[in-house]
Design brief:
Layout lengths: L1 H13 L1 H5 L3 H37 L6 H9 L20 E2 L5 E2 L2 H10 L7 E5 L5 H7 L4 E6 L2 H13 L5 E5 L12 E6 L8 H5 L1 E12 L3 E9 L2 E10 L14
Parallel strand pairs: 3-4, 3-6, 4-5, 6-7
Antiparallel strand pairs: 1-2, 7-8, 8-9
Length: 257
């Protein structure tokens, strides 16, 4: 529908010079701006409808109940965080390919992992595995400070540009090895990991604040999300749902002895 509308609009503008004479350039610019504005508004309404349906059917329709998470995912334009050619698929109930072999997680998994952190709205959060920045954007609507690390420079730059362009100015993006965390900014209230190591990285556990929580996929062919909580008496780990994430790269190959 949008494509047809643009075609008709372009045809209408093309006949203006014959009718309008010397004033055609200004009129063409004004009318062109109106067409683009109307098309943009139409697209945004369509995407908002898709976001609302995604939240209603894929999140609320399952077990995502945290109102902060639901509102953040209702607000963040997921279609801006995928390659342009698959923007219309952004709100489907599935993971999608990005670039360089990376993916953007299924909306439900984003909601599930964010909810698992039990955010109250005042936390300092570290994300490992930025991708195009969607998970970081969702977090940024809930907490005041988000730090995110991406090992692939091309993706880190792409994420930084998208986040800055959309005004998510409380997210800091770093290119680096997420296995090692971000020691200069530690400790963190919460850590979320969106790539799967074969064991829980000890540096990330060390960078958790007492009372902090981390959600992380762990495993090889078979992976599960593990919720880690750090208390005075030590660290507890609880295995939750089976998942499939891309492997964490750049990590130490073996856990410490």
């Amino acid at each position: 529908m949008t494509l047809n509308y643009l075609r008709h609009g372009a045809l209408f503008l093309a006949v203006i010079p014959i009718v309008a004479g010397g004033g055609c350039s200004a009129n063409r610019s004004i009318l062109g701006d109106k067409v683009n504005q109307q098309t943009s508004q139409s697209d945004e309404q369509r995407y908002q409808h898709l976001r609302d349906r995604m939240v209603r059917e894929q999140l609320e329709g399952r077990d995502i109940r945290d109102r902060r998470v639901l509102q953040a995912m209702r607000d963040v334009p997921r279609h801006m965080f995928v390659p342009g050619g698959i923007a219309d698929s952004a709100y489907q109930d599935s993971a999608l390919p990005l670039e360089l072999g990376q993916t953007i997680s299924q909306p439900y998994i984003v909601g599930y992992m964010t909810q698992a952190l039990r955010l109250q709205g005042d936390e300092k959060v570290l994300e490992i595995g930025t991708g195009f920045g969607y998970q970081a954007a969702v977090l940024s609507r809930i907490v005041p400070r988000v730090f995110t690390i991406e090992i692939l420079p091309e993706l880190a730059e792409r994420a930084r540009a998208i986040l800055e362009g959309l005004g998510y100015d409380n997210v800091q993006v770093r290119t680096g090895d997420g296995y090692r965390g971000w020691p200069e900014e530690a400790p963190f209230d919460c850590i979320i990991v969106t790539a799967a190591p074969d064991h829980v990285p000890q540096p990330l556990v060390d960078q958790l604040k007492e009372g902090g929580r981390m959600i992380i996929p762990v495993g090889g062919f078979e992976q599960h999300l593990i919720l880690i909580e750090k208390g005075r008496s030590g660290v507890t780990r609880r295995t939750t749902i089976p998942v499939r994430f891309v492997p964490m790269t750049g990590q130490a190959q073996k856990p410490p002895e």
